[in-house]
Amino acid sequence: MVSERTATVDDLYHTPDNGKYELVDGRLVRMAPTGGRPAYIGTTIATLLKMYELETKRGYAFGDNAGFVVDALRQRSFSPDAAYAFHADIDSDDFIVGAPAFAVEVRSKNDHGPAADREYTAKRADYFAAGTQVVWDVNPRTSTVTKYTADAPDTPTIFRQSDLADAEPALPGWRVAMETLFRA
User: Fold this and answer.
1) Alpha-carbon gap, residue 142 to 15, rounded angstroms
2) Contact yes or no for 100/84 (Cβ under 8 A)
3) Residues of the chain with pLDDT under 50
4) Is the C-alpha dihedral spanning 34, 40, 43, 45 positive or negative?
5) Largest separation between any pair of C-alpha atoms in the chain
């Protein structure tokens, strides 16, 4: 029996089609492009994170496609739709080493249903194992943001249209009016 070679971080730099991938359990997993609504929401969140960075002068905001290589986990990387990190080396062309403090995953067209829910649950567990404090699961279909925290991963907070969403404790004082993300 012939086994496949385990993928490495170096393989992320040399993907066959230069596409967006994550490294999951030693496998390269291709991330599909997203549609207009999820892309708009992710860009809006990244823009608001950039404003927080400029205001606090601490940490760094990242939009879609930033690669975070996680040393705490075997064979794992993340490429969230938006993220905030306090440790990033922005003077390097290499992937960011370590997990972001705050990660945003915006669900796309095919990211719904029981199988997708299981994948998102597993990914959140990996984020928390790597050191991420807060993960947002953004659902454009329901206009909701579900906030999960590392200290209470099974007790999420759900933000709806009229709410102010937060990323406490990862980003103290940062708030987002939900109507900013989801046009009524």
Assistant:
1) 34
2) yes
3) 1-3
4) negative
5) 57
